[in-house]
Amino acid sequence: MSPKVRQKKVPIAEQKPEERIRNFDEVCLGYTMEEAIEEGMRCLQCKNAPCVAGCPVTIDIPGFIKALREGNIDESWKILKNATNLPAVCGRVCPQETQCEGVCTLGRGKDFEPVAIGKLERFVADWKASSGDAPAPAVRRGEPKGKVAIVGSGPAGLTAAGDLAKMGYRVKVYEALHEPGGVLMYGIPEFRLPKTIVRREIENIKLLGVEVEVDTAVGRSVTIEELRSEYDAVFIGTGAGTPRFIGIPGTTLNGVYSASEFLTRVNLMHAYRFPEYDTPIKRLKNVVVVGGGNVAMDAARSALRLGAERVTVAYRRTQAEMPARVEEYHHAVEEGIEFRWLTNPVEYVGDERGWVKAVRCIRMELGEPDESGRRRPIPVQGSEFLLEADGAIEAIGQGSNKVLLDAFPELKLNRHGYIVADPETGATSVEGVFAGGDIVTGAATVILAMGAGKNVAKAIDEYISAKRLRAASR
Amino acid sequence: MHTILEKKLIAPNEYDMWVEAPKVASHAKPGQFVVVRPTSKGERIPLTIADYDLKRGSIRFIFQAVGKTTHQMARFEVGDSLSDVLGPLGRPSEIKKWGTVMLVGGGVGIAALFPILRELKRVGNYTITVLGGRSSELVIMKDECRRYSDELIITTDDGSEGIKGVVTEGMKVASEGRKINQAWAIGPTIMMKFASLAAKEMGIPIWVSLNPIMVDGTGMCGGCRVEVGGEVRFACVDGPEFDGWAVNWDVLMRRLQQYKDEEKLSLEQYMAEVESAL
Ligand SMILES: Cc1cc2nc3c(=O)[nH]c(=O)nc-3n(C[C@H](O)[C@H](O)[C@H](O)COP(=O)(O)OP(=O)(O)OC[C@H]3O[C@@H](n4cnc5c(N)ncnc54)[C@H](O)[C@@H]3O)c2cc1C
Ligand SMILES: Cc1cc2nc3c(=O)[nH]c(=O)nc-3n(C[C@H](O)[C@H](O)[C@H](O)COP(=O)(O)OP(=O)(O)OC[C@H]3O[C@@H](n4cnc5c(N)ncnc54)[C@H](O)[C@@H]3O)c2cc1C
Ligand code: SF4
Ligand code: FES
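Above: inputs. Below: predicted complex with iron/sulfur cluster.
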């Protein structure tokens, strides 16, 4: 390996832990142009480019980095845009360590870190956005190729919508909440993904001609039959938003939240700015968060920023099995979040007014590997102990969103309650109805939802084109 | 935009509003509700759909001004718009020919009861309606309910109209010497609790419409969870109607208290703003 290549990533500016735990501003401040170019210089421009294969939407990573280090940001941005509709988002929230950066050749070298691909992606997207030249609205030439309805405005729906609009379709996105964006808007907090960025990406998609109708719960405000008769195809990207509860005694006590409620209040409803915004949130002092994924990290760090003195994450496995992005875990540790490994709650204990006052936990040990390949946690008999708390937040996973599924019994679901869809095309058991994202895979990642949106957009184009052809030849 | 088409004060602090919401109007069924967010910084609050007009594409709700959001809505006038209206949400009431039905309503709950009563009558049930309130002027929609009731019983705490006493007194009178196949009770939580206990004693199955604090109203947050028959259910998607015999009323009442301090602060601040603007 060339001795000139830096071993470590170029350090990136961040808000200091002691400052950032009292605000909701973004933690990571991003590279300057010089830093980005310096980091870009670390890329070896590998012929086989394992990073590209590691990327779920196969971004031409050496290509965009090359353009960037040559100072050609426009070109770099175009390369990104070819593969992803949401580069500013992906650069911030993708689990790069298990994708592109996890297989980067540079990172294989002893004592070498991989190229900071995510940070570079984010740099290019942000630079392009702040350079002021807003993308020009797309003018649609001639008749649209057809009409497509998209249900749900998370990354899956938005991606499918953008791609179909580019192909010449008239596209309308229906969203149940009052703001589009899905988890990007209501789940992932401001300090990790500023909402102005999500809004900007959505504006760009609207400029392609996509219409967005909020406050519309498909299955209730409009039926699936109505959509099927009005549109040539329907895409369902309703996500996995239903919070699960462990179901232990005390779940209905005051002060026990699902992470979904806690984060929705904070993000979508801006409760961290109560009473300027009307939706309240409890300012808890001593919080126990249950879980080990991104959702748990986000809930814990939000509770801290709302003024908690002590936040403890209880996870039933160990750090090695934690599904959260490593960066989030590191940030959480820096901010003073405490971690209790091999710990599972068994009961929420209430005070005489019905508020949670402690969480009874049990210690776990790891047994044989389960179906996920991770060692199964088993409770250690007689190891129960109390963690004092005035609030508890469960972040143990979500199930499928039911509002639409309940109203659409013809649609085939698997045994976990997710839609059965062809892995390549997203075709469901109902003709002309496609699905993708978390509603098919179960809770996964932004980039996988986007990838599904892309593939399904292609399949919908083929489906509608074939249908037109058949109709014309008749 | 959801323009306000009509607005009336129908009882002290209780408002009757018609609002443009074509998608809701064309899909609404008795027993369903909407989530309203009046302003862009506002809270999302659930309100029952009291009526709907397909031709105008509008819906009606009747609300009591209790906190910041409802007080703010009370100051909206005809021509103003509500920022967001989402619905219809929740499972519709089970409308069918039950035989003899008893509908018990109190406070603004009467508004929620009204479309259910009307539909039950339309499909051929014998309808007995029991409406209660502290005093005569607080028993709303009497004339509208009378039109669809084979019998109408009114109870008031102060005896200013009908039977002096609470709705359970009216329920006793209504059920005396005959079989009632199904009952509904909608009103303040405490009223629904006692109506359910009374119905259980009389052996009458009863639906109640639960009103926990909600956020999204689409099953996505779990904030609206209630305990029914020992199980945790989400009122916005599994309800809002549940079997009154099986509801854990203490849990519901306790969870409604969760934001008391914040609600007080919010209302005081709003009232101060309103006063200083005058
Ligand atoms: C707190 C949190 C943190 C996360 N952090 C990360 C991270 O760091 N990195 C990462 O890659 N992934 C992360 N994820 C996972 C990621 O956000 C999801 O996998 C992704 O958003 C799924 O996209 P989607 O489009 O399938 O669905 P969603 O983003 O869930 O969007 C679905 C949308 O459909 C709407 N909808 C549902 N039903 C209806 C209906 N009937 N009619 C109309 N609209 C409807 C919903 O309101 C919602 O807006 C996180 C998830 C959460 C909850
Ligand atoms: C399914 C359902 C249907 C309803 N229908 C009607 C109706 O037709 N007419 C009517 O007057 N009221 C109805 N309510 C109650 C109404 O939603 C509350 O009165 C309203 O949210 C109070 O808001 P506020 O800001 O004015 O008062 P706040 O000061 O915020 O609260 C006053 C009290 O209202 C309750 N409440 C507060 N926030 C919410 C919330 N987001 N969701 C539910 N309850 C809350 C709490 O018990 C609280 O103590 C219904 C509630 C539900 C769940
Ligand atoms: S694997 Fe790493 S070094 Fe090689 S091209 Fe990709 S980013 Fe550059
Ligand atoms: S209000 Fe959020 S799940 Fe019912």
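The first strand of chain A starts at residue 13 and ends at 14.
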